[in-house]
User: Which sequence fits this backbone?
C-alpha cells in the first residue's frame, strides 16, 4: 500500500547509556527514522527512504521497520559502506551525543537514486537538516526529493534539526533556509531557530519562516509546548508535564505525531496539542524508539492529564 507519509534521511544504530552509567544499551535512532516510527505508531501509513550497509546494523533496521509497519521497499543496501552509529551519554546538563557516521551508506545516496513515483504518490514528504548535512550528495538528493514532492502536490515537512558537528553555521543556515523556502510545514525547535535566524521571540521566528514561504510553522518549545502559526492565526499550545528521564527523540516523536494527526484531519493547533502529549510520553523512558507511545496511549493521556 502506498504510504501517505514518506521520511527520508539517515538511520543510526543507537547505544544509549544505561542508568548505572556503565553500560550502553543497543537501540535505533536517526531523526527521520524516529519520525517515521512515531507516525506509524499513531496509525499513519509510513514509508522510509535511505541507504543501509549490508551489515548486521542495517538488517536490524529492516527488521525494526517491518515490526513497526513502516514500508522499506525502496531502501537501498550496499556492501561498500556501513550503517552509521551513535552513542547517548547522560549527565547533569542533559544528554550528549557522540557519532560514528562518516562515510555511511546513507551519506552516499544521490539524486538519481531517489524514487520519483514513490514520493509522488504520498501526501507528505518529511526531511530534515540532518538529512542534508551528512554529505553534498545527500543534500542534493533531499532537494531533488522536495522538488518531486512539490511538482506532484505532495506537502513537504522540514525540521532543521541543526547539528553544528556536521557542518559550519554559514552553510547550515544557507541550506536550511533554502529548504525552508520550499516546505509547507516548518517544524523548527526554538534553540535551533534562534541560532539560524538570530531572532529570539517565537512570534518573530514564526514570522520569519512564514515569510520564507511556509504555510504552517510549528515552533517546538520543549516542555513549554509549541508555538503554532499560520497565515491567519497563531497560538501557544501548552506542554504536558511528566516526570521526564530522557528527552532523546522527543522532537522526532513530536514531528511524527503532528504529521499523523494532521493527516487525520486535525487543524495545526489540535495536531500540535496531540504531538505535545506524544512527545511528553516519549521522555518517560530511555532511548529514541522504545518509549514512543502508540495512539491509544496518547489519547488516554490527553483525557487524563490537563495541560
Assistant:
Amino acid at each position: 500500500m502506498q504510504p501517505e507519509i514518506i521520511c527520508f534521511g539517515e538511520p543510526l544504530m543507537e547505544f544509549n547509556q544505561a542508568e548505572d552509567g556503565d553500560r550502553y544499551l543497543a537501540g535505533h535512532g536517526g531523526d527521520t527514522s524516529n519520525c517515521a516510527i512515531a507516525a506509524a505508531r499513531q496509525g499513519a501509513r509510513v514509508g522510509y527512504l535511505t541507504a543501509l550497509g549490508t551489515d548486521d546494523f542495517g538488517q536490524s533496521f529492516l527488521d525494526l521497520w517491518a515490526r513497526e509497519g513502516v514500508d522499506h521497499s525502496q531502501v537501498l543496501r550496499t556492501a561498500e559502506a556501513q550503517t552509521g552509529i551513535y552513542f547517548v551519554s547522560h549527565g547533569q546538563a542533559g544528554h550528549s551525543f557522540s557519532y560514528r557516521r562518516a562515510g555511511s551508506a546513507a551519506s552516499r545516496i544521490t539524486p538519481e537514486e531517489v524514487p520519483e513515483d514513490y514520493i509522488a504518490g504520498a501526501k507528505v514528504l518529511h526531511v530534515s537538516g540532518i538529512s542534508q548535512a551528512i554529505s553534498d550528495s545527500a543534500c542534493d538528493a533531499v532537494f531533488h526529493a522536495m522538488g518531486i514532492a512539490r511538482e506532484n502536490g505532495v506537502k513537504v515537512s522540514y525540521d532543521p534539526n541543526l547539528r553544528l558537528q556536521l557542518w559550519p553555521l554559514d552553510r547550515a543556515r544557507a541550506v536550511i533556509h533554502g529548504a525552508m523556502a520550499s516546505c509547507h510545514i516548518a517544524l523548527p525547535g526554538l534553540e535551533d531557530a534562534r541560532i539560524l535566524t538570530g531572532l529570539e521571540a517565537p512570534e518573530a521566528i514564526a514570522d520569519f519562516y512564514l515569510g520564507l514561504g511556509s504555510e504552517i510553522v510549528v515552533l517546538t518549545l520543549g516542555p513549554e509546548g509549541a508555538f503554532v502559526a499560520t497565515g491567519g492565526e497563531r497560538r501557544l499550545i501548552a506542554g504536558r508535564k511528566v516526570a521526564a528521564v530522557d528527552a532523546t527523540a522527543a522532537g522526532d516523536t513530536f514531528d511524527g505525531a503532528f504529521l499523523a494527526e494532521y493527516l487525520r484531519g486535525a487543524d495545526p493547533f489540535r495536531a500540535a496539542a496531540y504531538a505535545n502529549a506524544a512527545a511528553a510520553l516519549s521522555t518517560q523512558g530511555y532511548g529514541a524508539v522504545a518509549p514512543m507511545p502508540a495512539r491509544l496511549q496518547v489519547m488516554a493521556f490527553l483525557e487524563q492529564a490537563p495541560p
Notes: The chain has a mean pLDDT of 94.
